[in-house]
UniProtKB/TrEMBL annotation:
Protein name: Uncharacterized protein
Superkingdom: Bacteria
């Protein structure tokens, strides 16, 4: 009964930039809605994780095999949010 072991690491990362704007501009002291206004939010989000895994395959017969495995509970996830405000909020 041949047995095969497979091990490895699963690595993922993500990086995104997000900006938010006011949905109006001031014209002669009155708001004009539906226009891109001042920058409200400027952020960068980063994420990464790494997970080791193990998979085993038993070849029981020529046509039948048994597979088992999974990720170990040693995974690491790191999230980071960097906020850059354009102006002070009151």
């Amino acid at each position: 009964m041949p047995v095969t072991f497979t091990t490895g690491l699963d690595y993922e990362n993500m990086s995104e930039r997000r900006k938010g704007f006011e949905n109006f501009v001031m014209v002669n002291g009155a708001p004009q809605y539906g226009e891109e206004g001042n920058l409200r939010r400027n952020e960068r989000n980063l994420m990464w994780n790494i997970d080791p895994y193990l998979q085993t395959q038993w070849q029981l017969t020529d046509k039948l095999s048994l597979d088992a495995g999974g990720a170990l509970q040693l995974g690491v996830v790191r999230l980071q949010r960097l906020l850059h405000y354009a102006r002070q909020r009151r």
